[in-house]
Amino acid sequence: MPKDYTFEDLKPGILLLAEPFLDEPVFHRTVILLCEHSSSHSFGLVLNHPQDAILDSIREEKVMEEIPLYTGGPVDQTILQFIHRRPDLITGGQEISPGLFWAGDFEQAIEAIINQQIEFKDIKFFVGYSGWSAGQLEREVKSDSWMLEPATLDYVFDETPESLWRKVLYQKGGNYRILSTYPDDPTLN
């Protein structure tokens, strides 16, 4: 594991940033919000892969405006989840980082959107998720596949998906700042 990470750093509320040379197209330059981490499994949602689809396209009830969807990861594209920063409007969520909640009462979330009480800058919906079996994520971090950074509300909700990976690395400073400028395809230099 990189010397600036420990196994205790893997916990809900941590961002996993794919290293720039990760040879896995599905995770190319992804930023994953870790929502659960235990000795039996790990689970997270990709923050920077918006879909062309909208929530109405996967729900039978068509009463909402165009709610954007994100691909949470390659596992089980039938599962719909959400994160938010509005516990005053959506009860039952699990706080995974200060002010950042995973899940909660889905119907309350939809009602708050319909009633224009909540904006899309405060909530994100995901289909699918990213998952790891026991010890798998630790091994991947140890092999330098992922870099870690605590999630902030700005990173999760305010940064554009296209710039999120670079922005987080740049703000980490030092050698990470250099990595943030590395081209997508170095052969084109």
TrEMBL record:
Family annotation (PANTHER family): UNCHARACTERIZED PROTEIN YQGE (PTHR30327), UPF0301 PROTEIN YQGE (PTHR30327:SF1)
Top-level taxon: Bacteria
Organism: Aquirufa avitistagni
Gene3D superfamilies (UniProt xref): VC0467-like
Pfam families: DUF179
Transmembrane segment boundaries: none
Family stated for the protein in its record: Belongs to the UPF0301 (AlgH) family.
Name assigned to this protein: YqgE/AlgH family protein
InterPro entries referenced in this protein's UniProt entry, alphabetically: AlgH-like
